[in-house]
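Hi there. Long-time user, first ticket. I'm pasting a complex I've been working with (about 826 residues overall). I'd like to know whether the download I got is complete or cut off, because the file seemed smaller than I expected. Thanks.
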Amino acid sequence: MFKVSLNNSAAVSARSTSAQTVVAPRSVKDLRLGESGTICCLKDPEMALKLLEMGCIPGTQVRLNSRAPLGCPITLVVGETADYTLSLRVSEAATILLKE
Amino acid sequence: MSSAGIRIAPAGAAASAATLEATGAASRGLTRIALIGNPNSGKTSLFNQLTGLNQKVGNFPGVTVDRKTGVSQLTPHHRAEIIDLPGTYSLYPKSLDEKVITDLLYDRASAQYPDFVVVTADASNLRRNLLLFTQLADLGLPLVLALNMMDVAAQHGINIDLDALQQELGVPVIPMNARKGIGVAALKIVMAQQLDAGTNRFYEPDETLLPMLRQIRYYFNLHNDYLALHYAHQFRHISFLSADDKAYIGELVAKYNFEPTARQAQETIDRYNRINELLLDAVSVTRTEKAEPYSNRLDRVLTHRVWGYLIFLLILFLLFQAVFSWASYPMELIDQGVAWINSLIQSNFNGPLISLLTEGVLAGLGGVLIFIPQIALLFAFIAVLEETGYMARVTFMMDRIMRKFGLNGKSVVPLISGMACAVPAIMSARTIENRKDRMITIFVTPLMSCSARIPVYTVLIGLVVPDQPVLGVFNLRGVALMGLYLLGFVSAVGSAWVLKLFMKTKERSYFIMEFPVYRWPRWKNVGLTIVEKVKAFVFQAGKVIVAISVILWVLASYGPGNALEQAEQRARTSATAQRMSEAEVESHIASEKLESSYAGQFGHLIEPAIRPLGFDWKIGISLLTSFAAREVFVGTMSTIYSVGQDANELTVQQKLAAEKGPDGQPFFTPARAGSLLVFYVFAMQCMSTLATTYRETKGWTWPLLQLFYMSGLAYLASLLVYQVLK
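Hi, the file is complete. Here it is re-exported in full:
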């Protein structure tokens, strides 16, 4: 269920960027204020390690809680029972892909 | 698995032996306990509760991270040494700070290896907090779980079955509220017992990895497979492994085609699954349909696009007010106190040693002590802002802006504090985890115009800028002063941007962080923070400041051969000729002596170099002496230009205005004063700052870079100003 790259992270991230321009799966970046989504997978393998440790596990529900006045960073509420709030940059949020 | 349990028995026995000895003799071998937990899990509160004022800050060997230890009286006969480790979310370090944890826990042979570990966890957010716990358990360490913030969990409707949890985790679980000290007594009793490692394991390395892990494990004589897995992941960064050891693991990792990123990601997911399972039995949530959390409602105002910034400005204003005006009263007292002691000594004793003591050591010491009120107040403010969770909002609002210049949302605090004093400002840069961002912040902070530049600015602006209104409301002098502050700010941000282009780092810059809820500050933590920062400043930076003050004193009080005696005689002769009053004679002698001293020689020596900036040897001396601290400039100028001892700024100004150049025109032309002003905006003339940078970066590279960069910048800017305006 979890797809992160394996050997060649550069190739994988290059592939996923090009995939994004074609298919454009929704990421946390695309959530509207107050909207929830369920994490499907994490695109950037290295960033994924940090996000996973912070509890952004595939299958977890996240809600876009607020945006900073200049649009970046954003805050996310993690977990169905609103366990805690994370703040992260939009570029980091873009690596968290959502289930359709 | 049971084999792993047996394997760790010797270590457990050793720990218990240490415990028994400590109980018996109370003197030999303190039990060593490490405190580990997620950020915001109340670890600092617990550390403060356990150790109180018995804390000291040292260094971890070879790394740039503070090592905070303290002694705790667990029972009347049993004391333990507590090591406070940096907050972390997992045992895979992301920052240099976090690396000290793995360095400590991977090396069982180390003298620093803890007898057991107290893990703090936020009970209201148990799932994520248990990730670190399960990793520590799998390393085979004896553990105690301090289940903190039970009150918050209760508010959230989270019910924790402690017996079930203890059963699932296999270690003692102590419910606590460290803020209020609830549970500390129970924790101390458990900590005083002999503890063995639990036998519950939460994650097994994949079977396909075993051939590789076993080779690592037997080669290094490790006690379990999971530790071997960590060696495979992190061998490049383990400080105690030799190059051969690293090469050995490197070969194995390549041979077995080990994929660290994917393995680590999978481990984290597996652990979360396991934690979810065990929490099913131990934790139930009675969903309370409660109103929106107060934190969110507060944020709607405090991070609002208009109100957010306005309130931030208001808080800044208050902070400035505190550091500039409230601190001035105790600073004056300290100043007077040092002066009083000085005059007391001087009026009762005499001789070169006494003047070394008073003008060198005590003057230097006064220069250190004078900063204490500002440091204490600034850190009181910052500690309260951190404790309440407001600082996370400031970094949140400013990150986008600061990132454009190679800085970080967290750089805002040091930059702002730098307008009061660069010394505490540089110390406050510690909150920035990313090393590159932190170094850039430390590097550019002294460019912000600090309060010590104010006397220099006022004297020189008063000298050349006419006192006339601009646009009806502003005063031209005020506008000039603001211009100098702006110049400092622009150069700080610009330098950061330039530095960003040159600095390379392997560490990635993350902004992924927990956004804490608003809380009332814990005053005990605030107080201990102030004590810690003041102590660090006085004992670490203070040593260097006093040393340099003494050197400066020697340079200004001695000259080659009998140059000083000759100078005094010359001065007396010319004084009698000019029929000066006694005070005038004294200051005339002082000025002549200073010119003949080593410092005066230095002024003459560097004159050719500073002449293009419009400076003469007298200003050269002032530049040298203001290296001790910028405000010394005014005092030195008043000595050199032989103003009487009771001179105030006005007379310095008049004296400077009266100074004539060789052509008979006023020496301080707008070009010359402008050049000098710009020089003071940029130049690194503060040994306290250099000493602090040295302390904070743990090396001379950064302070020296700062010194040369800022001095170079000052030189070029002054050259430009003088040559253009001349």
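A couple of notes from our side: The first strand of chain B starts at residue 31 and ends at 37. Residues 435 and 507 of chain B are 8 Å apart (CA to CA).
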